[in-house]
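User: I'm putting together notes for a lab meeting next week and I want to include a structural view of one of the chains we've been expressing. I don't have a solved structure, so I'd like a prediction I can at least talk through. The sequence is below, exactly as it appears in our construct file.
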Amino acid sequence: MTIANFISFFRLMLSVGVIWGLRAQHFGWVSVMLGVSAVSDFLDGYLARRLGQVTQLGVLLDPLADKILVMAGLIYFAVYREISVWFVLSVFFRDISGLMGVLALGFFKKKAIVSSLMVGKISSGFNLGLIFFLCVNRLYPSLQGVISFFYGGAVIFVVASFCIYSVRWFRLFEGKE
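Assistant: Thanks for the context. Below is the predicted structure for the 177-residue chain, given as structure tokens.
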């Protein structure tokens, strides 16, 4: 196992800790785990590229860890009506449509390297930031402006990333990319 894959696996395990922490309402610990997760998300990709250790496992593990972490946080805060269910469903739909695109490419034996785009990384950053500040707001309730900023950015970039990735999937499927 490469160091980058180990870090991605560690982040996947952090998602379990975040789910437990949210359920137990330990928002301080959850905030710390989200911060560590954000750093590890940057670090695993950087190390994989820098050390020439990009692997198929890492390509799957990295986004899986991100999606589990983000969906767990979004679902938690939707249950407590701090964010809307439609937003959580839109993130879920975007992620599922991406998975279906990968599966369709594989099913029709289209050869393509499916890497993440900057718009997807920005979207993940806004989602993670939103969850982080919702947790911190539970400890220090005065962050409505910051939360509104991250919520607005998350909505914009979920829509933008869905549109951009959809165009990309069609181009890949047609063999134009």
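A couple of points you could mention at the meeting. The CA atoms of residues 10 and 161 lie 26 Å apart. Residues 3-174 form a domain with the Four Helix Bundle (Hemerythrin (Met), subunit A) fold (CATH 1.20.120.1760).

User: Perfect, that's what I needed.
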